[in-house]
Predict the 3D structure of the following.
Amino acid sequence: MKNLSIAARLIIGFSFVIALLVTIAVIGISRLALLDSNTRTIETQVQMMSLSSDIIGKTKQIAIALRNMMLAETDDDLNRQTQIILDRRTSILKDIEQLWPLVTDPRAREILERAKAQRTRYIEGQEKLVALIKSGSPEASRRFLNTELRPILLQYQDALGEFNTYQKELVAAAGTEAHEQHKNARNLSIGIVVVALAVSALMALWVIRSVTGPLGGEPAAALAVIERIAEGDLTATIPVRDQDTHSLMAATRKMQTSLRQMLDELRRTADGVANAAHEMATTSQQVMDTVTDISNALREQGVASNEIAVNVENIARRSEENSSAVRAVAETALHLERLAADTRQAVSRFRIGGQAAARHRGGVTPNAVFKYSISCKARCFCV
């Protein structure tokens, strides 16, 4: 039940209330049907009592007409009373034909059967009495009336009276049953209504708690608080019930507290970022100044580098020239070495020859010849 959605709970609640209303309606309709059935039974019984009473009344009229026939002095009066008797017989027959289909109770039908049998006997006695009256035998007519026809009439009337009495009992029983059914229906309806109200109240309380419980308050109050927070107002006071930690209002207050803390941290962070930005701006300015100095230095170094490049080119060119000179000197040295070797050989030969000549000529010494030869070689080297 806890996992049911609000819509499902509302559907269950309204369905239960509708089921109770339908139950009340069905019970009320069934009880009303019983009351209607009893009312119709009473109406039928009253109609049967009315018919039987009419039969009794018409039977009495026939008895009066028979007495009047015995007292009649003219044939017209006699014929008029005879017609009355015939008319009442016909009317009673119609009443019996109308009454018989209405009688469904076995005892009532048995009583009515006895009344019909007594009626047949009574009609036969009427015919005998009328014949006696018309034959002009007043003594025989009175004797037959008192000794034979009146007992039959009394039995006939007793049967009709018993039928009426029994119908009255049935009417009284039907009335009592109707009252009991009304009482039972009233008590049952009251009980069902009380149960329906109690269950409806419980269902309403259940549905209300299912709606307001997760919200933690009235929907309008929760909506107002959320709208204020959505607008950026975190100073709103959020009412939360005691020991409420899982409702929307409680969660909203937690969210409000968290947002406040986040905003405070953001403010502190923003201040730190602003200070850092200021420091970075100062550092950036210093870096820009340094970069400018470096740029100027690089510019000056560029000029110097250009000069150095020119000098390097000159040095390279001079080095190449020196290399050529060195190669030339090397070649000259080799040449001088060969020349020195040749000179040594020549000097050696010259010494040998000079010594020989000196010995022959005696004027030039070997040292003088050697010095002269060296000076000649040196002049050749310089050249």
